[in-house]
Specification:
Alpha-1-antitrypsin, domain 1, Antithrombin, Chain I, domain 2, alpha+beta
Length: about 400
């Protein structure tokens, strides 16, 4: 993947995280990697202020956006465990500019018939087919009359990965925060690799990051901030740390005590000189629906929604305006692995304990707990592209009580 494109997508992820934090502390999941290519394709066909705003949101000149989108989508398709697809549906009587159409990546091409039920069935089937059935509805409205949709541009991403080492799971209760005393499905693991946990410092204080390694080149980083820190502040610091734009210090170089949120480090007598990191986190599943037009400035879509004139002469000689832009997303973190999937659509209309041997050595021991709301980031290891980001407020309950 082109480094400049990766940085541009990650910057959009960070801006989205900051905007999500300004709207409250609800659980969420989102993927800018599913939005960025669509914005790039729109920018390629836009003119005037709409083109300028889209280029600003992309962090890429509009004239370079479509090739960068094609390259990004091709690179995503080569990531093991990740499926990606792009689709375009237009009304039969909507002429498309050949130059713009030629820039589109390979993918589905369909026709909007004007029959809402028929079109809905086709769009929903595409969404389900490209997310293994996890998302069964295309996030676009299909009104009739003057607001009828003339064109739908969509992307789908579906990530499935397994951990290199699975977690053990069992009953647990959080030690602090809003989850205290709730029966939760807790995941446990021990490792000698202390620096799977790092601490970074951002605008809202220290942030603890745990790297959970996947088997196909994608890892998930759990991100815990100070109790009073906001969602946007914690995720933004986490994104900067995992993309190496902000320094983070591994546990092996941190002082004893409580050097980061949820993290405890000391040196103890042990039967072995091998260090030990103990991990405990709540399993989670998060679903979210996003109306991108509620944060139109983040995505460069303020002018593009105006219906007084067309904004995309490079797409069609008929005047078009963005009528809707939505994303449906889901993420699951469990003992065996992680799943994340998202469908994004832009619609355009007119305008146990054993006996211990004798302890002879002193060794480094660390414990990290994710026992209150925290963030997560799925990151492609080689490129550092953030594929999905989110926030957990409602972890999985233990199914059978203690």
């Amino acid at each position: 993947m082109r480094n400049s494109t990766v940085r541009a997508v990650n910057r959009l992820t960070a801006r989205w995280a900051a905007a999500a934090g300004s709207g409250g502390e609800a659980g969420t999941v989102f993927t800018a990697a599913g939005v960025w290519p669509l914005l790039a394709l729109l920018a390629d066909g836009a003119a005037g202020a709409a083109r300028t705003e889209l280029a600003g949101a992309l962090g890429t000149p509009a004239g370079e956006a479509a090739p960068a989108a094609r390259e990004l989508l091709s690179a995503l398709g080569s990531v093991r465990g990740l499926r990606s697809a792009t689709g375009l549906w237009g009304r039969e009587d909507l002429p498309l500019e050949p130059g713009w159409s030629a820039e589109l990546p390979p993918g589905a091409r369909g026709t909007l018939t004007g029959d809402a039920d028929r079109d809905r069935a086709a769009l929903d089937a595409w969404a389900a087919a490209h997310t293994d059935g996890l998302i069964d509805r295309m996030p676009v409205a299909l009104p009739e009359g003057p607001d009828a949709v003339h064109l739908v541009l969509a992307s789908a991403l579906a990530l499935r990965l397994k951990w290199i080492r699975p977690f053990d799971e069992g009953f647990g209760e959080a030690h602090e925060g809003p989850w205290a005393d709730r029966p939760l499905l807790m995941l446990h693991r021990h490792t000698a690799l202390l620096d799977r946990v790092k601490v970074a410092r951002g605008t809202a204080g220290a942030v603890t990051l745990l790297e959970v390694v996947g088997d196909d080149g994608v890892d998930v980083h759990l991100v815990l901030g100070e109790p009073e820190a906001r969602l946007g502040e914690v995720l933004t610091t986490g994104i900067e740390a995992v993309t190496r734009d902000r320094p983070a210090t591994g546990v092996s170089r941190l002082p004893d005590g409580n050097p980061g949120p949820g993290l405890f480090v000391d040196s103890v007598r042990s039967h072995s000189p091998e260090p030990r990191l103990s991990i405990e986190t709540a399993a989670f599943e998060v679903n979210a629906e996003h109306d991108l037009l509620e944060q139109a400035r983040v995505f460069g879509l303020e002018t593009a929604t105006g219906r007084r004139s067309g904004h995309f002469p490079g797409i069609s000689p008929e005047p078009l305006a963005v009528g809707s832009a939505r994303q449906t997303a889901l993420a699951r973190f469990h003992a065996e692995g992680f799943e994340a999937t998202a469908v994004t659509a832009v619609g355009a209309f007119a305008g146990g304990v054993a006996a211990m041997p004798r302890e002879r050595d002193r060794t480094r021991r660390a414990e990290v707990y994710f026992h209150r709301p925290f963030g997560f980031l799925a990151v492609h290891r080689a490129s550092r592209l953030v594929l999905a980001a989110g926030w957990v407020t409602d972890p999985v309950a233990y199914p059978d009580g203690p």
